[in-house]
Design brief:
This protein is α/β, with parallel strands linked by helices. It folds into 2 domains: 10-115 and 305-345, 2-Layer Sandwich (ornithine cyclodeaminase, domain 1); 133-302, Rossmann fold (3-Layer(aba) Sandwich), CATH 3.40.50. The protein is built from 11 helices and 17 strands. The strands form 3 sheets. It has an 8-stranded parallel beta sheet. Helix 2 (27-43) crosses helix 4 (149-160), helix 2 packs across helix 10 and helix 4 (149-160) packs across helix 5 (172-182). The longest helix has 19 residues, at 114-132. The structure holds nicotinamide-adenine-dinucleotide. The site of nicotinamide-adenine-dinucleotide has 28 residues, from helix 3 and strand 11.
Amino acid sequence: MIQPSHKALVPFVSVENMMRLVHHVGLEKMLTDLAAYIEDDFRRWELFDKTPRVASHSDVGVIELMPTSDGEAYGFKYVNGHPKNTSEGLQTVTAFGLLANVYTGYPTLLTEMTLLTALRTAATSAMVAKHLAPKGSSTMAMIGNGAQSEFQSLAMKAIVGIDTVRLFDRDPKATEKCAANLEGTGLTVIRCTSPEEAIEGAQILTTCTADKQYATILSDNMVGAGVHINAIGGDCPGKTELAKGILERSDVFVEYPPQTRIEGEIQQMPEDFAVTELWEVITGAKQGRRDARQITLFDGVGFAIEDFSALRYVRDTVLETPYHQDLDLLADPDDPRDLFGMLTRAAG
Ligand code: NAD
């Protein structure tokens, strides 16, 4: 057997261990803690390196890299988006990610991020809704009942305090799955047979569908005054969920405008369409919800800093638990210049 002659092992969190970590912490507590980490990083927004994600598009989907750094740590996520995958028994979105030390460049964490993406997306949606949704919001319409939907519902319960979700999906089996999974969570779950029925009486409207087209999940006449729209399924060029008229009547809040203008609902609007950056609402520099009749719209596409916060959270939490393995990922010979010698010694 080859003896390792190097010392730098990298903590690795597998899917199995991520699930153990979630159960160890508690799902709703983890969503709340993640939202706090994300909110903290939005407060220090200006010091991050920021770039729109690097996307490689194909006819059927997209593969993306999402890097950022706060000067001390560097993180990136690899993520795909393939709406046709579910019909082949595969996930629409899968991901993994890495955190590294900026001083040495050595990785400090490698982790699955498919579950973590669902958790951080839900935590972001709920953190944003806490700032923008009408006070006392109790009901959310959840349109698109796929992989993200239960996480979205439970984050809104834990962080915003909703007590009811009204579910709709064009595939009734997805709605059944979501409703069954939410049983016993304390949420009142109502299965709906149309998007119009789903939004009845809801203060928060979440759209989280997957389709590679300019879809109209919400048409202009469906959206009344005073609601908060959490539109997170449109996150690629040529993939949107809202009628243009809704954007014209709403105050639109975004993560990072250079990325959202390419990928978000606002790709339908002129380049100079006015948006508010969320970090400025969170620091108090800009106003969020002004009045009870205003429509607030979170045009969420998912930004690298949210993944960075999630990686930071996992690093801070998992190392005190047994839910990680040490991975022999880096060649790190005792004599840093003798990489070749390390290889030759391994032959013996
Ligand atoms: P999924 O494929 O598991 O679920 C999508 C659901 O949408 C399916 O159940 C499908 O039947 C339903 N759907 C499609 N078109 C519909 C329509 N016209 N009306 C009603 N329902 C419809 O996907 P998922 O993992 O839940 O992700 C959902 C979307 O969210 C994807 O587009 C994904 O790219 C996006 N996403 C965004 C972020 C973000 O940060 N903004 C993060 C993760 C995923």
